Amino acid sequence: MRPSPLSLTGSIFMISEHGGLVEYHFSPQDGWEWVEHGTPHRDVTLVVAPGPCFDGTQLFVIGSDG
């Protein structure tokens, strides 16, 4: 999982071609790293790009189930 669970600062989120949520995260120690967060439940797909983060630690995504 993510090296720094306290903040989404320095991260870019996107949907992979396989439907999973991936993060490109900047770490001062290691530089840029890819973090895979997996896919939603098997009957759900992510339908739009990830939205804004809230409170610095929560990310909004929309699934095919609403």
From TrEMBL:
Domain of life of the native organism: Eukaryota
PANTHER family to which the protein is assigned, alphabetical: BULB-TYPE LECTIN DOMAIN-CONTAINING PROTEIN, OS01G0275950 PROTEIN
Name of the featured protein: Uncharacterized protein
